[in-house]
Amino acid sequence: MAEIYIAFADTPGFFAGIIRRVIRQKYIHVALSLDPMLRETYSIGRRHPSVPLIAGFEKEDKKKILRAFPDADYMICSISCTEEQKKYIERELRQAMRERFRYHYAVIGLPFILMGKPFYQKNHFTCSSYIAKLLEEAGVCRWDRHFSLITPKDFYEYREKQKIYEGPLSRLAEIDQRENRSRIPIFGFIRPAFAGVLTRGGGSYER
């Protein structure tokens, strides 16, 4: 078996505040990562973290996000899949990255989400609808409605996920740097056989 990772982001801002009020939860942006440290993470979102009006498909960069939002909180969850499913997802993400300027944020689709009516304009997605479509095509997730209606709240409530980190993005970046220096897979030590929570410097790991 393999795993993919859903990163939930809580960042400030005017548009974030609107989305937060609509879906009524803390985390209003989701990204898809191939690793738990978010070293290779993709999403439909801001092309530059500090410019909210220019959005499309991008590879996310923790350092850039932290410069724009030093107080950003993240929750990272794993979802199990087969090796073949992960390879399919990996190929699709990297292909989309090569063609990233063909993808755009589905601004026109936002009112349809509020009305509960499916709407799809070619290569236009929200952060959650892109991931929902890709994971459904890969056979990892099944949804009870059209992918264009899937919001970050659906991923937050998805029962098959397992939370592995919740806390400041800055703390995760520190852990990543330490792991790179030591070459010790820190996440390998936080999956014992019992359940619980381990807290380290402001971030919590599900155990």
Quick recap:
The chain has 207 residues and is an alpha+beta fold. The protein contains seven helices and ten strands.
Q: How would you explain this protein's 3D organization?
A:
There is one protein chain. Strand 9 (197-200) and strand 10 (203-206) form a beta hairpin. The chain is built from seven helices and ten strands. The protein has helices at 14-23, 62-68, 83-98, 110-115, 127-137, 152-156, 169-182, and strands at residues 2-10, 29-33, 41-48, 51-59, 73-81, 104-105, 124-125, 161-168, 197-200, 203-206. 33% of the residues lie in helices and 29% in strands. The longest helix is centred in the middle third of the chain and has 16 residues, at 83-98. The chain has one domain: endopeptidase fold (from Nostoc punctiforme), CATH 3.90.1720. With 207 residues, the protein is of the alpha+beta class. Mean pLDDT is 85; it is low at 187-201.
Q: Strand order, biggest sheet?
A: 4-3-2-1-5-8
Assign the structural class, choosing from mainly alpha, mainly beta, alpha/beta, alpha+beta, or little secondary structure.
Answer: alpha+beta
The largest β sheet comes out as: 6 strands, antiparallel
Mean pLDDT value:
85
Distance between the termini: 19 Å
Q: What amount of the residues lies in strands? A: 25-35%
Question: What do we call the CATH topology?
Answer: endopeptidase fold (from Nostoc punctiforme)
CATH level-two architecture: Alpha-Beta Complex
What is the number of E strands? 10
